[in-house]
Amino acid sequence: MSDRGSYSSTSASTSPSTNNKEKSKDYHRMDCKKIQILPTTGSLDYYTDGRMAVRFHESTQEMSLWLNDLKDEIFIPFDQLKGFRIAEYKELEVSLVLNFHRKYYQNDVEVKGDPTNGLLEKATSLIITPRNNVPIESLTTIEDIIDKYRFGIFLATYKISSIRRDPVNSIEIYVKFFMYVERGGVVVPEDISLDGIIQTISKKFKFYLNSDRLSYKNGVDVIIAIRDEEDWSVAKWESRYSNTKPGVELYFI
């Protein structure tokens, strides 16, 4: 076991908060063998740091890192997630806002000490590798939870926007992307250009994307090619009136 566990225990005993974490029952758990932290080279590993898992809590709209033999937990609100990626070879990447908000708990009691000993400082992305016995369906369940959350944001955003008549460029949209073995989603300004969305996905997840094979799925599930900025504007416009999708669905296939 690493020193991070003992650090957390010391912090919990010397500076606990009076806030107890209310346990949510509607969470999805995925056991992990490694969590890599970007852009640093820091990582948490099952073999040196003990049992670990990630949990996605629907009712409280949070994800959590369950660390140090499941004794410590770090809660991160969903609104601190700027994107995600899953791969069929079983890998989950979560993109975070800079200086993202988080809270630390030990045995459901909030503490001030960081159980990672500062590894999450300046982190912008977490690459999570599940245990070998975790099925790919576990990752797609996480995708569904994130999509459900984003759809709620989508509905609330456009309801408020229609009442206040906010300018379009004040709104963020959710863009899902699909490739042969990987897919995910990003949150971007609605006025983002076609080149802008391609560059955003490429840089955030280090992809090489072929825009010559770019298309989107409209409200009646028809795949339509995107060849230029006008097509991209239509795709965004159609997504505003969808009753089933949280945003634009892009296909690089």
UniProtKB/TrEMBL annotation:
Question: According to the UniProt entry, which residue ranges have a biased composition of type Low complexity?
Answer: 1-18
Q: Where is this region: Disordered?
A: 1-27
Q: Which domain of life is it from?
A: Eukaryota
Instruction: Tell me what organism the protein belongs to.
Output: Funneliformis caledonium
Name of the featured protein: 14678_t:CDS:1
